[in-house]
Amino acid sequence: MAGSVPVARSLQDIYTDDALASQTKRWAALVSRFESIYGHAPEFVARSPGRVNIIGEHIDYSLYAVLPMAITADVLLAVSVDSFLSTKSTYRIQIANVQDAKFPAHEFDIPHDAVEIDATVHEWTNYFKSGLRGALELLRKKHGADFKPKGMRILMDGTVPAGGGLSSSAAFVSASALAVMTANGEHVVDKTELTELAIVSERAVGVNSGGMDQSASVFSERGSALFVSFTPTLKARPVHFPKTNPELTFLIAQSFVTADKFVTGPIHYNLRVVECSLAAAYLNAVLNPPGTRLPADAAPLGISLHGFHETYFALTEHATKASSSKPVPEQLRELISLTENALTKQEGYTREEIAAVLNITVDELNSQFTSRFPVRADRFKLRQRALHVFSEALRVLQFMELLEDPAHHPEAGSDTSAYNAKLGTLLNETQDSCRDVYECSCPEIDDLVTIARKAGSYGSRLTGAGWGGCSVHLVPADKVAAVREAWEREYYSKLGLTDEQKEAAVVVSKPGSGSALYLVK
Ligand code: NG1
Ligand code: MG
Questions:
Q1: Sheet-wide strand order for 106-111
Q2: Is the pLDDT reported for residue 2 higher than 70?
Q3: What pLDDT sits at residue 1?
Q4: Boundaries of each GHMP kinase N-terminal domain copy (predicted)?
């Protein structure tokens, strides 16, 4: 599914029918606000959506495949290009947000050769700058080191809730990179290039992220989920759900617990990434023949993560000669049992213990594994993290098989509840594993999940990084109202929400389209 970011001719190319009326108003308001701020019309709008992850949680950075879909909520950047304010050595970026009380406007004069980002300060424009930096790196590769970036005036309108697990950051970074590429004369933007640069760019903001969100934001196609795999190269293809009766719907429910990776990264997200890398190295050391090295730069995206994936191949190659001919799910099962035997410490491993097994000093361990992003931990739960990753990778494959193997599909006109329940069970198992093994859920999400299942959801779980944010629920169309009422009664009514929050608490989402450009006439 290679190709370039589409240029939309109308909003119908971008949004599903149910969203069209409100989006048309929103876009018109964006353009007129742009005019009133800058005194002229924007030239184009760059758009990238948020996403909900259906299954495959916390495995993208270990390079296992995932199944997200884009949602309607998105980031819009209205842009005009203007080199008038450029000097010999700088260009000017003016950036404002329609929510100006929360996200104040800024003006930057940026040196041609470097975009400074202070990741220690939490500032909304950092996400733009990281997209800018990534896009300019690519442009310099194409056009030479003395490439002179254009000045831009920008107005942003983002509807993906921040810290809500729907990937506002990836939507913002992808839209920013797309806007910068376009402003600088790249009229055809390759989706793979854009995705890869958005993945790497987001790291500049201080999160050691995987590649799911940016892939979903850029590649998604209206009406389908997206199967994203990362090895041997980044690939994304649309996946359809078979028709069921009643139709299956995805409900997305906010917990209103804000999980801010910028703040909690050292004990949550970034720590998990480190634990996964350490687990891979540990397993490699104890299961493979002495001296087997994991590729230093394992990933196709130039990410040095010592991904599980490499361990997995290395292990299956060595551990059982026969296993490479086994189906992947069987290999994963084998890896789960190898892990259970090799990593027995429930309470976690100290730096000293891990360093001894890796045959390196604690200082070396720190510099190899914990220096790029800050983490705070005395013990690393290698067993639990590895078991989650391998079992979750397996569930993604099982889920895909249910979706794509016609042998599993319910017959037309037949009762589809048994089929739906199988899909739902896998989602529920993901939630259990996230809660108990990966420890990335929270009591509020657990509540939403329990309430939904009681009211008729087939499968309910957290989506995205967790520790708050959003949950996703596979609900038959005829139970949607019951599930919503149950949440209102048993969860939301207790939070004292504003009307606006109530409005945004639950979204029925149809799979939306990915990044697009719109030329304003
Ligand atoms: P959120 O926090 O929902 O944007 C994060 C990562 C993903 C993935 C999920 C967990 C970023 C930008 N995204 O998503 O890559 O690892 O957590 O599956 O950090
Ligand atoms: Mg994010």
A1: 7-8, 516-519, 44-55, 67-81, 152-158, 90-97, 106-111
A2: no
A3: 41
A4: 133-220
